[in-house]
Amino acid sequence: MHAYRQAPWRTRRQTIGLFLAVLVCASMVAALYLSVTSRTAIIGREIQSLESEISANRQRNADLETRLAVLLSNRETERRAREQGFRPASPDEIHYLVVPGYVPPQPVSLAARPDLRVNAPTIPPEYTQSLFEWFDEQMRASTSSSSPVGASQ
Q1: Lowest mean pLDDT among 8-12, 50-54, 134-138
Q2: Exposed e or buried b per residue across 36-54, where buried means at least 16 C-beta atoms within 10 angstroms of its C-beta
Q3: What's the mean per-residue pLDDT of the chain?
């Protein structure tokens, strides 16, 4: 048999083709990596932007709460009432009304009432018995019922 030998231009073309295929694969991987990295960076920037916006809104909210507290303070309320013509009432101007049937609210007691414990539902003994206790009871019941009749006399 004759040994088949390829022409030199064919081997160069195959080498160049293999090199170009590797180069195309490497550029595709690099493009994919660049795409993923750029998307991650964009999303990271959006998150930073949203976090700074949240921080600014919290600061604005705190400022508004402070302004509201100042407006609702006793000193500021009295000042605005005086500007509108109000004044403190004298003891002669105060009148109390008795409302029939009105029961003032009772203070809330957080202590447990003892009568609630007395009326608490009890758990039947069947539900408090363990598996081993039940098994022992069944064994005793079966041995007592299977004992000889003449042995008990």
Answers
A1: 8-12
A2: eeeeeeeeeeeeeeeeeee
A3: 86
User: Is residue 76 within 8 Å of residue 70, measured between CB atoms?
Assistant: yes
pLDDT value of position 153: 43
72: containing domain: 8-82
Which distant-in-sequence residues (6+ apart) come within 8 Å of 129 by Cβ? 137
- Number of structural domains the chain divides into: 1
Would residue 128 count as lying in a domain?
no
62 domain residue, yes or no: yes
Helix (H, G, I), strand (E, B) or coil at 86: coil
Could you report the per-residue pLDDT of 87-133, keeping only the tens digit for each? 999 999 999 899 999 998 999 888 876 665 556 667 777 778 888 88
Within a domain: 64: yes
User: How many angstroms separate the CA atoms of 89 and 141, rounded?
Assistant: 87
- End-to-end CA, the chain: 113
> What backbone phi and psi angles, to 5 degrees, belong to 12?
-65, -40
Q: Could you tell me which of 144, 123, 142 has the C-alpha nearest to residue 134?
A: 142
Q: How far apart are CA 153 and CA 145, in angstroms?
A: 15
